[in-house]
Specification:
Elements: E1 15-17, E2 21-27, E3 36-42, E4 46-50, E5 56-63, E6 66-70, E7 76-79, E8 84-87, E9 93-97, E10 101-108
Antiparallel strand pairs: 1-2, 2-3, 3-10, 4-9, 5-8, 5-10, 6-7, 6-9
Length: about 130
Protein backbone atom coordinates (compact mmCIF):
# COMPACT_ATOMS: atom_id res chain seq x y z
CA UNK A 1 0.00 0.00 0.00
CA UNK A 2 1.22 3.48 -0.85
CA UNK A 3 0.09 6.39 1.32
CA UNK A 4 1.42 9.83 0.53
CA UNK A 5 0.31 13.40 1.20
CA UNK A 6 0.56 16.48 -0.97
CA UNK A 7 2.44 18.17 1.89
CA UNK A 8 5.14 15.48 1.69
CA UNK A 9 5.85 16.44 -1.96
CA UNK A 10 6.05 20.23 -1.56
CA UNK A 11 9.60 21.61 -1.93
CA UNK A 12 11.09 18.24 -2.91
CA UNK A 13 12.47 17.27 -6.34
CA UNK A 14 8.94 16.03 -7.18
CA UNK A 15 7.65 19.62 -6.91
CA UNK A 16 8.47 21.11 -10.31
CA UNK A 17 7.88 24.80 -11.04
CA UNK A 18 7.72 26.61 -14.37
CA UNK A 19 6.78 30.14 -15.39
CA UNK A 20 3.09 29.23 -15.81
CA UNK A 21 2.67 26.13 -13.64
CA UNK A 22 3.62 24.07 -10.61
CA UNK A 23 3.43 20.28 -10.81
CA UNK A 24 3.32 18.45 -7.50
CA UNK A 25 4.12 14.90 -8.61
CA UNK A 26 2.55 12.63 -6.02
CA UNK A 27 2.97 9.22 -7.70
CA UNK A 28 5.80 8.56 -10.15
CA UNK A 29 7.35 5.79 -12.24
CA UNK A 30 9.42 4.61 -9.26
CA UNK A 31 6.17 3.67 -7.52
CA UNK A 32 5.72 0.93 -10.15
CA UNK A 33 2.06 1.62 -11.00
CA UNK A 34 2.39 2.29 -14.74
CA UNK A 35 0.96 5.80 -14.37
CA UNK A 36 1.85 8.95 -12.49
CA UNK A 37 -0.44 11.30 -10.56
CA UNK A 38 0.12 15.04 -10.37
CA UNK A 39 -1.61 17.90 -8.56
CA UNK A 40 -0.95 20.80 -10.94
CA UNK A 41 -1.44 24.54 -10.52
CA UNK A 42 -1.67 26.76 -13.63
CA UNK A 43 -1.28 30.47 -13.02
CA UNK A 44 -4.19 32.71 -13.98
CA UNK A 45 -3.62 34.80 -17.11
CA UNK A 46 -1.22 32.29 -18.68
CA UNK A 47 -1.30 30.19 -21.84
CA UNK A 48 0.76 27.05 -22.39
CA UNK A 49 1.31 25.18 -25.67
CA UNK A 50 1.59 21.49 -24.87
CA UNK A 51 1.76 18.27 -26.87
CA UNK A 52 2.45 14.96 -25.15
CA UNK A 53 3.64 12.83 -28.08
CA UNK A 54 4.83 10.03 -25.80
CA UNK A 55 2.17 10.04 -23.10
CA UNK A 56 -1.57 9.99 -22.67
CA UNK A 57 -2.71 12.58 -20.15
CA UNK A 58 -6.03 12.72 -18.32
CA UNK A 59 -6.85 16.01 -16.59
CA UNK A 60 -9.56 16.65 -14.00
CA UNK A 61 -10.14 20.30 -13.10
CA UNK A 62 -10.95 20.82 -9.43
CA UNK A 63 -10.54 24.61 -9.09
CA UNK A 64 -10.53 27.68 -11.33
CA UNK A 65 -11.64 28.62 -14.83
CA UNK A 66 -9.97 28.42 -18.21
CA UNK A 67 -10.14 26.71 -21.58
CA UNK A 68 -8.35 24.14 -23.70
CA UNK A 69 -7.96 24.47 -27.47
CA UNK A 70 -7.16 21.68 -29.91
CA UNK A 71 -4.57 23.36 -32.14
CA UNK A 72 -5.29 21.13 -35.17
CA UNK A 73 -9.05 21.72 -35.20
CA UNK A 74 -9.42 25.07 -33.46
CA UNK A 75 -12.07 23.56 -31.15
CA UNK A 76 -12.19 25.25 -27.74
CA UNK A 77 -13.74 23.85 -24.57
CA UNK A 78 -14.34 25.74 -21.33
CA UNK A 79 -12.70 24.36 -18.20
CA UNK A 80 -14.04 24.59 -14.68
CA UNK A 81 -14.46 22.42 -11.59
CA UNK A 82 -15.76 18.98 -12.52
CA UNK A 83 -14.45 19.06 -16.12
CA UNK A 84 -12.23 16.27 -17.42
CA UNK A 85 -10.26 16.36 -20.68
CA UNK A 86 -8.10 13.58 -22.06
CA UNK A 87 -5.32 13.92 -24.62
CA UNK A 88 -5.89 10.39 -25.93
CA UNK A 89 -4.55 11.12 -29.42
CA UNK A 90 -1.54 13.16 -28.27
CA UNK A 91 -3.23 16.37 -29.40
CA UNK A 92 -1.22 19.57 -29.52
CA UNK A 93 -3.21 22.00 -27.42
CA UNK A 94 -3.28 25.38 -25.77
CA UNK A 95 -4.17 25.48 -22.09
CA UNK A 96 -5.42 28.92 -21.05
CA UNK A 97 -5.92 29.72 -17.38
CA UNK A 98 -8.34 32.61 -16.90
CA UNK A 99 -7.96 32.27 -13.13
CA UNK A 100 -5.61 30.04 -11.20
CA UNK A 101 -6.44 26.45 -12.20
CA UNK A 102 -5.89 23.36 -10.11
CA UNK A 103 -5.87 20.17 -12.15
CA UNK A 104 -5.33 16.54 -11.13
CA UNK A 105 -3.34 14.93 -13.96
CA UNK A 106 -2.65 11.27 -14.71
CA UNK A 107 0.12 10.36 -17.19
CA UNK A 108 0.53 6.99 -18.89
CA UNK A 109 3.24 5.81 -19.08
CA UNK A 110 4.33 7.18 -15.74
CA UNK A 111 6.67 10.16 -15.51
CA UNK A 112 9.87 9.86 -13.52
CA UNK A 113 9.37 13.31 -12.02
CA UNK A 114 12.44 14.88 -13.59
CA UNK A 115 11.07 15.54 -17.09
CA UNK A 116 11.23 18.99 -18.62
CA UNK A 117 8.98 20.20 -21.47
CA UNK A 118 10.84 20.31 -24.78
CA UNK A 119 10.32 22.97 -27.48
CA UNK A 120 7.01 21.46 -28.65
CA UNK A 121 5.67 21.02 -25.11
CA UNK A 122 6.30 17.25 -24.93
CA UNK A 123 8.11 15.11 -22.43
CA UNK A 124 10.64 12.58 -23.75
CA UNK A 125 9.59 8.95 -24.23
CA UNK A 126 9.90 6.75 -21.17
CA UNK A 127 13.25 5.09 -21.26
Amino acid sequence: MIVRTLASVIDTPAHVKGAAFESRRILLAADGLGYSLHDTLCKGGTEQRLEYRNHIETNYVIEGMGEVENIATGEVWPLGPGTVYVLDRHEAHLLRAETDLRIICVFTPALTGQEKHDADGSYPAAG
